[in-house]
Amino acid sequence: MTVNGAVSHWWSTLGGPPVRRPALDGDRDADVCIVGAGYTGLWAAFYLKQIRPSLDVVVVEREFAGFGASGRNGGWLTAALPGSRAVLAKGPTGRTGVIDFEAELRRQVDEVIAVCAESDIDADIVKGGELTVATTPAQTGRLRAAYDEDRGWQVPDDEWLDAAQASARIAIDGVRAAIWTPHCARIHPAKLIKGLARTVEQLGVSIVEDTAVTSIAPHAVHTDHGTVRAQQVLRCTEGFTAGLPGERRTWLPMNSSMIATDPIPAEVWARIGWEGREVLGDEAHVYIYAQRTADDRIAIGGRGVPYRYGSRTDNDGTTHEATVTQLAAALHRLLPATRDVPVAHAWSGVLGVPRDWSATVSYDASTGLGYSGGYVGHGVTAASLGGRTLAELVTGEDTERTRLPWVNRTVQRWEPEPLRWLGVRGLYAAYRRADQRELATGRSSAIARVADVVSRKP
Q1: For residues 213 and 221, is the Cβ–Cβ distance under 8 A?
Q2: What is the structure's pLDDT at 8?
Q3: Which residue in 54, 314, 390, 404 has a CA-CA distance of 20 to 30 Å to 342?
Q4: Positive/negative CA dihedral, 319, 323, 329, 330
Q5: What is the CA radius of gyration of the chain?
Q6: Taken in order 454, 93, 390, 188, is the CA torsion positive or negative?
Q7: pLDDT tens digits for 265-277?
């Protein structure tokens, strides 16, 4: 029987959600208060203590560390840009700034791996790279365009693979071509966040859980258990940002769903390959993302029902049965050898999407307020870099990271309801229709391009 919800499969492999830390016990003072104990918040805490060990840092979490996307994601430690090159290039650093940003993301992949090694965080990390496949002529055209665009933006090390070369890595049914990049690692999301929480506590950071933030103001975080007064307050709430007062239209909480199979027998793996433990994606409009786990399952995800009216978020990760069926069908289409392997677990989570689909790190020294997020689904590495950049901004460090084009951008808010709901649901309905037509005809569909224009998605 498939488990549905219970936060995520990743937490289930660790015996379920962790025992919660005590809540905030009345009012207290701190140097820095961080709202949200996910990747962004805990990496910010980590780097604050690296830069200035004497800082008193408090992290306030409504549920438990890793309850949100940090404990539910696809496990891609990827150098993928969390946004649009065209959007980010409009900033004062222009094209050069975007090139520098992507280079910094590649370095941050290795930085996370190094910190995990130094801090004894076993997160099942394998740097096997990222394989993006095309299975229709239309997808192949988009894949080639993406490869050529990467060359123009000075992205190094990408390899174009023909069908035989791609199949030698993973035996995808009907694969026509692929791109492989080495700048990505498979991780176990919950192991990473659990280890990171332990690490920052060892550095002297206080994490309080079961503490709901009711409002954020300059130098104060008000909660249902008291107020934390701090010189700096950092909002690191990603997909749950819409639940804070005044933030309903800041970032759209986009739903993404996943399934994980039972452990797959060795004889099936012999037919599939996947010996390099690459993470796997495709070039569909409603794309999938997948990994081969350390215990020989396949975890695969996609958008499912992308948005709930009114920017509502879930409680325990339950996903729609129709989405479970869709994800299983996608897995079986790409890897027919898995058809008889049961689905063990299904879950969902929310990620933050700004109106221009590009992430931001921001800090105002006059108010002491800062935030990082809106990673549009590429958050594992970006959250680490965002937290690191926040720490440098708070402490007044002038680094190559504090000058990147996502720092202190101004982003338009999302439209009010029902326009927000209609726009997002319409966009993904168009994407699904475009994928169906491309699978049936092999020809590129204009439906997705029209939907992008209408929705102003870059």
Answers
A1: yes
A2: 98
A3: 314
A4: negative
A5: 21
A6: positive
A7: 999 999 999 999 9
Convert the pLDDT of each residue in 148-190 to its tens digit: 999 999 999 999 999 999 999 999 999 999 999 999 999 999 9
Q: In 3-state terms, what secondary structure has residue 402?
A: coil
C-alpha to C-alpha distance for 82 and 378, rounded to whole angstroms:
5
- In angstroms, the Cα distances linking 389 to 46, 207, 214, 354, 372 are 11, 20, 26, 19, 9
* Gap between the Cα atoms of 414 and 207, Å rounded: 32
Identify the H or E element spanning 140.
Answer: helix 137-152
What superfamily would CATH give domain 7-110+189-251+355-394? FAD/NAD(P)-binding domain (3.50.50.60)
Is residue 281 within 8 Å of 132, Cβ to Cβ? yes
E strand intervals along 165-288? 177-181, 184-186, 206-208, 213-217, 220-223, 226-235, 252-261, 279-282
Exposure on the CB side of residue 244, measured as CA atoms within 13 A: 22
The two tokens of residue 106 are 């590649």
Range 182-220 burial, b when 16+ CB lie within 10 A, else e? bbbbbbbbbbbbbbbbbbbbebebbbbbebebeebeeee
For residue 454, what pLDDT band results from cuts at 50, 70 and 90? low
Give dist(CA 402, CA 404) in Å, integer: 6
Q: Are 13 and 190 in contact (CB under 8 A)?
A: yes
Q: What CATH homologous superfamily does 127-187+253-354 map to?
A: D-Amino Acid Oxidase, subunit A, domain 2 (3.30.9.10)
Cis peptide before 416 (omega within 30 of 0): no
User: pLDDT for 370-389, tens place per residue?
Assistant: 999 999 999 999 999 999 99
Can you give the length of the chain in residues?
458
Express each pLDDT in 95-132 by its tens digit: 999 999 999 999 999 999 999 999 999 999 999 999 99
| pTM of the full structure | 0.96
